[in-house]
Design brief:
Length: about 375
């Protein structure tokens, strides 16, 4: 009796209930369309910043899913340098970070290139530049050999009898299994792109062809499948971020699919839900990017701002906590209280700052954009 789907006689003839997927698929595609349309309206600089935020999260979280902690500053710095974003690539370099960044960017930007053995091996080498996974030496840029026994996914426990959640096909089967997978992936465009991405993720991670890094590569392949459908070369949301936030259900859905029959409806339902959650999270995170981009676009051709005003306005657009006071302005800009008050009064006359109720000694201001009807010039 087959324990895992790869042991079934009809493997890999996957199937799913199209009717059950119809509504969640339509919802996910609707969210995708609205979000990508919104991104087209915010200008080049806004898209670059949103891309930097999403790719940084993707690199950080695809590693965190596997229990590996990478420095967010190093991730952001590496991606910023590669995207050509000035003043954002100042963090320390890290060899492991550089490798994961290479994979994530390759999947997003080189979507037209076919998925091949060599490409997968290149991703694997980037993940493990030293040839070690932790303290263990592994086979890098080649299929696993199972020289230490069957490839198993085992719960992390100190129990003398740890739980085996999954056992992959024997190493001798891997080249043929991968050949079939790649032939399908490089030719299959007849099914919905999101279903194709979910299927590719499950299929690759079930083959489990490498000594380590199979989950990260499976997620990169799913990202590649989505990039092939969007054909933009930019990624503004993070599937890995959504997976990491729902990691327990992710592993449960994988195990259920790998131990079930070849009807993968439940896995695809989870994948579509995760995708919709990734878009929703990106909308929340990038709202500030949208607001900031639209704000500066609206200022083109208007009265110029001083460097101090631009500095404080950027902080306000980023979600400055608390109310703004003359003292805080002076501290941020390193200027006198009188200079700070003149700067503030100018923004009040433009309707960008609103004076809050209170005595003149404790006067504070709230940022408003789009601007309100400016009140009379404050004097204190």
């Amino acid at each position: 009796m087959a324990t895992y789907i790869w042991q079934r006689e009809d493997w890999p003839s996957f199937s799913w209930n199209a009717g059950a997927l119809l509504s969640p698929l339509a919802d996910a595609r609707h969210r995708q369309g609205l979000f990508l349309g919104k991104m087209r309206d915010i200008g080049i600089d806004g898209r670059l910043e949103a891309e930097l935020v999403a790719l940084t999260e993707d690199v950080e979280k695809t590693s965190a899913i596997e229990g590996e902690v990478l420095n967010p500053s190093s991730i952001r710095s590496s991606i910023a340098r590669r995207l050509g974003i000035p003043d954002a690539g100042l963090g320390p370099t890290d060899r492991k970070v550089e490798g994961v960044v290479e994979i994530v960017l390759d999947a997003a930007k080189n979507y037209a290139a076919p998925l091949t053995n060599e490409r997968i091996f290149g991703w694997h080498a980037a993940l493990f530049p030293t040839g070690y996974s932790g303290k263990d030496r592994i086979d890098v840029a080649r299929w696993r050999t199972d020289r230490h026994g069957p490839m198993q996914v085992v719960s992390s426990t100190f129990s003398p009898a740890p739980v085996v959640h999954f056992e992959a096909p024997p190493a001798g089967c891997v080249p043929g299994e991968i050949a079939a997978f790649l032939a399908w992936f490089n030719a299959s465009r007849s099914i919905d792109p999101l279903l194709r991405a979910g299927l590719a993720h499950l299929w690759f991670v079930t083959i489990h062809p490498m000594d380590d890094g199979n989950g990260r590569i499976a997620r990169a392949i799913a990202d590649l499948a989505i990039a092939q459908a969007e054909r933009s070369g930019q990624r503004f949301y993070s599937m890995s971020g959504a997976i990491e936030r729902d990691k327990r259900r992710y592993y449960a859905a994988l195990e259920a699919a790998q131990r079930g029959d070849l009807d993968i409806t439940d896995w695809l339902l989870w994948f579509l839900e995760c995708y919709a959650n990734a878009i929703a999270a990106a909308e929340a995170i990038t709202d500030r990017v949208f607001t900031r981009a639209k704000f500066w676009m609206a200022q083109d051709g208007g009265l110029p701002f001083s460097e101090r005003q631009r500095k404080v306005l950027t902080k306000l657009l980023d979600g400055f906590e608390g109310n703004l006071t003359t003292k805080k302005w002076a501290s941020i800009c390193g200027c006198s209280a009188d200079t700070a008050l003149r700067d503030i009064n100018d923004l009040v006359t433009r309707g960008l700052l609103v004076r809050n109720p209170g005595g003149s000694k404790n006067t504070s201001f709230t940022f408003r954009w789009p601007p309100t009807q400016p009140p009379d010039m404050p004097t204190g």
